[in-house]
Amino acid sequence: MLTTQANPKPVESNSRYKSYSPSALTSAYRRVKEDGIPILRASKLYNVPRSTLRARVHRRIHPDTVAFDQFQETKLVSHLKKMASFGYGYTRQECVDLASDFAVKLGIRTKSKPLSMKWIRGFLSRWPEMKVLKPHGLEFGHASSSLPYAKTNETTVMEYFDNLEKCMRKHNMMDKPHLIFNVDEKGVSIDHTPPYVVGSSDYKVQAVTSGKGKTITILGCGSASGVSIPPYFVYPGKRMNRDLLIGASPGADGTMSDSGWSNTEVFRKYLESHFCKFVPARHDEKILLLLDGHRSHVAVDLADWAIRNSIVLFVLPAHTSHLLQPLEVACYGPFDRIYSALCHKIMRETSAAIYIYNICDIACETYKQALCAENLQSAFRKTGIYPLDREAIQKEYLVPTEVFENQVVTDVDEGCASDATVERGVYTV
Question: Looking at residues 63-91, what average pLDDT do you find?
Answer without folding.
Answer: 77
